[in-house]
Amino acid sequence: MRLGSVILLAGLGLAACGPQEPAAPSEAVVAPPIGAVLSTSPDILAADLAARARELADDKYEGRGPGTVAGEAAAQWIADEMKRMGLQPGPDGTYFQTVEMVAQTVDKATSNLSVTVGDKSIPLALGPDAVYGTKRQDQMEVSVSDSPLVFVGYGVVAPELGWNDYEGLDARGKTVVMFVNDPGFITDDASLFNGRAMTYYGRWTYKFEEAARQGATAVLLIHETKPAAYGWDVVEGSWSGEQADLVRADAGASRAVLEGWITLERATEIFSAAGLNIDAMRAAANKRGFKAQPVPGATASAVIRQTVDRRQSRNVIGVLPGAERPDEHVLFTAHWDHLGNDKTAMPGVDAIYNGAVDNATGVSAMLEVAEALAAGEKPARSISFLAVTLEESGLLGSAYFADYPLIPLNRIVGGVNIDAINPIGRTKDMIVVGAGASELEDRLKTLLTAAGRVIRPDPTPENGYFYRSDHISLSKKGVPMLYVDGGIDALDGGEAKGIGATEAYTRITYHSPSDEFREDWDFAGMQEDAAVIAKLAFDLASSADWPQWYEGNEFRATREASLAGK
Q: Which sign does the torsion angle of CA 538, 539, 541, 542 carry?
């Protein structure tokens, strides 16, 4: 297969020698023709799903890092697949939407973070004790000096819930420290936020953004495995290496100087040295009326030296034009990117984060649906397929599409997001993450019932998965999106098999180099799921319906306002 030129505006590495502009884009880099030409059927088949997932998880794509030669080759392969199966390019005549990005890498050897409590210095080693970086895109070195620590509970400002962890606090110059998730999780109190089900206020992205709005100089999240839904190894693996962001108009000046995580053990040590009991602090933070509290005598200091490379990545879009109302679209989304490779790994250590489940499976399912629909009768409306970049960096590719939509958002009827399906075989159920949100679920329920299957609401709403994938970027703009996942009640092995596989993946494989394609995976369940999703998309695209969020949903008013301008 001829891949053509992959445009990669890779910045020149910069020495950490003080403030300066990030590297100017280099000349275009041509990627080698490494993508395989597949021989797939228009029918939805397990073998085809496996073939596409195997291809995208191959070492040759080096973990599909956005803005890298190998990563953008994976995006090109997806575009070539779309073209091969008969999808048309996006509305602007190309299969790509360019996403301007920066890649920032903290120099571990010359960067440091420590907390001083009285005369005791507590160094926080980058990796085992803390991970940290900066969103400042035009500075190769930033520092924090003797910044007073303030405990701000969960770092939440939610006026509609009568909750403000920053009330009365001037956060300027301060280092704010907070727990992950939100107050309802630990207490399991349905009257607090959404009980054990995480809200958007529990997301790490929100916490960093809110701290910046409050003017904090630095932000530290205290990691705990259960509230975060992953262990420290995931935090260390995900945030220790190269970090991507969109190019910001203010070069990140509106963000805190330092954003990071610390382990529960180190946070406990800091609080104890200051005469505070961390469990008592957590209990106080879970009660209405909590007030931010200084950590007595504690200050944070840090130096971050980094390289900043300016690059381009790409969202990939293919369109099956509608026969009657082509300006109305049903949308599929799945992210093609993963974590790339660890350039600092020791020789002989597997350094490639292949992302086979996350999210080669989702892209494979989306392409399989696309090929089946492209080969059949054309529906009245268009069906568009969007493979987004930079999901692993905070849903940035989908956020870029939502801010600069190639399709007007009030012309998107609704959509389906697919992110990381564990290939465990056929199941009696299908998970809807964030169940109880929109009328799209009614359509899915009808199709599953006809097949003798059921919708299973997300079994772990406390993990906040509804706010951790690309559909949320569109949902926040009002577009009804259905986030589907494979079931867990296996025909062969029951719930024990499905739950065991999910827990093992989260504990061992998630965001690690061990997320590799396995030949013993059973794609029969994904085949059935893809067939159901294809039917749902075709039926919606063949109708005149505009599914709405359920009454009381947080996004309903936004959608109503959007459609009013249609």
A: positive
The closest of 72, 295, 332 to 176, measured between CA atoms, is: 295
Token representation of residue 209: 């953004």
Q: Look at residue 182 and give its three-state secondary structure.
A: coil
pLDDT band at 186 (very low <50, low <70, confident <90, very high): confident
| Helix 278-285, helix 264-273: angle, nearest 10 | 100
SS3 315: strand
Residue located via tokens 């079931």? 487
With contact defined as beta carbons under 8 Å apart, do 218 and 147 qualify?
yes
Residue 32 DSSP symbol: P
Token readout for 529 is 């799921």
**CA 53/CA 364 separation, integer angstroms:** 5
CA distance 242 to 106: 7
Strand spans (E) along 218-292? 218-223, 243-246, 258-263
- Which three-class secondary structure state does DSSP give residue 329? strand
Question: Which among 340, 350, 306 has a CA at the least distance from the CA of 68?
Answer: 340
Helix H, strand E, coil C: the string for 289-320 is CCCCEEEEEEEEEEEEEEEEEEEEEEEEEEEE
Which tens digit of pLDDT belongs to each residue from 546-562?
999 999 888 999 999 99
User: Measured between alpha carbons, how far is residue 478 from residues 112, 406, 415, 435, 540 in Å?
Assistant: 42, 16, 11, 16, 18
Helix axes 524-542, 362-374, angle to 10 degrees: 50
pTM: 0.85
Q: Judge if the upstream peptide bond of residue 359 is cis by omega within 30 degrees of 0.
A: yes
Instruction: Kindly give the residue spans of alpha helices, DSSP state H, lying in 96-190.
Output: 183-187
pLDDT tens figures, 62-99: 999 999 999 999 999 999 999 999 999 999 999 999 99
Q: How far apart are CA 468 and CA 391, in angstroms?
A: 9
- Model pLDDT for residues 249-293, shown as the tens digit of each residue: 999 999 999 999 999 999 999 999 999 999 999 999 999 999 999
